[in-house]
Amino acid sequence: MGKTSIILDVDTGVDDAFAVLFAALHPDINLLGITCVDGNTNIDQVVANTLKVLDAAGAPEIPVARGAVKPLLGKSQYAEYVHGADGMGDLGIAPSARKVDSRSAVELLRDLIEQSKDPVTIVPLAPLTNIALFLRAFPETAKKVHRIVLMGGSASAGNATAAAEFNIWHDPEAAAIVFQSGVPITMYGLDVFMRPGINREQATQMQNSSNPAAQFGGSLALAFMERLGVSPVTLGDYGAVASVIRPDLFTTEMFDVVVDTSAGPARGQTLVDRRDAFLKELEPLDLEDSAKVRVTLDLDVNGVEQLWLTTINP
Ligand code: BDR
Ligand code: CA
Fold first, then answer.
1. Residue 201, exposed/middle/buried by CB under 10 A (0-12, 13-18, 19+)?
2. CA Rg, the chain, in Å?
3. What CATH number does the domain located at 4-312 have?
4. 92: phi > 0 → left, psi -120 to 50 → alpha, else beta; which?
């Protein structure tokens, strides 16, 4: 298999960092650029964290752009209780000398997709504000997007609320725009998100290795364990990136999905129509705004974990 060209959209974030490390280091991924968005923490912090992860990966110059400072509607809701005051484990790493790209996130998305000779997959690991703005701003370029593989949503329970997963809940209107865009979408959500993990022993081994990327990944995982008081901790967003290049490790199915943008208790829910076929035929989900979405329902946990470990610390 040749290289797959991807653009990451992140709110870095501990598990976004696991994903960025992987995307920067895996030989089958051509990481064209990274766009940053308000999500786990504020945009300045997200940009600063993302640049630090690229340093740790020893990555070449990869354009990183600043994106939306707030959701389309409503206010920002940060997740410092999960990711730390700096949004990335409070490791005390020195600021990166890398420069942020002068273009905005939507401009960088446009340019990278227009310039790419190969099909481009967008991999959002964060609220979908940047992606919705891009689809609206540059609809002709949007037609060239190969597909979107996003971390977000759930076909079962939520995490930010009983009904909603954090990335969708943070900006439901943006999610609705993305889901209804017509670009082929795969949803890597809470049905699988927590399952691939790293334990204390693996993280300690990485931290003690001589490889800077592994040292960083191990330290980050150990800080995450400390904060959450559990081991193993999830590799989270990373799984969505893995599913782009190793679909053989994942089980997906097509469903009709609606994003709840109401003001009620289900705001931000991805309502996935998992009824038996005969019931769907009797009573289709005839909401105008439903979209056909490929939903990840299962995965080879050990295979996905080993892929991360052997990529970060070969
Ligand atoms: C998602 O929210 C963020 O905290 C994580 O980075 C992940 O993208 C999980 O709901
Ligand atoms: Ca994230």
1. exposed
2. 18
3. 3.90.245.10
4. left
Q: Is the pLDDT at 102 greater than 80, yes or no?
A: yes
> Quick one: tokens of 253?
């199915």
Residue 282 has pLDDT above 90, yes or no: no
CA distance 307 to 37: 27
State the distance from the centre of ligand 1 to the C-alpha of 16, rounded, in angstroms: 8
Torsion from C-alpha of 220, 223, 228, 229, nearest 10 degrees:
130
CB 300 within 8 A of CB 192: no
| Domain range list for the chain | 4-312
| Mutation probe of ligand 1 site: the residue of 9, 18, 36, 40 with most atoms within 8 A of C-beta | 40
Question: What is the pLDDT at residue 283?
Answer: 76
pLDDT at residue 286 in the model = 61
**C-beta 40 within 6 A of ligand 1:** yes
Is the CB of 37 within 6 Å of ligand 1? no
pLDDT at residue 278 in the model = 84
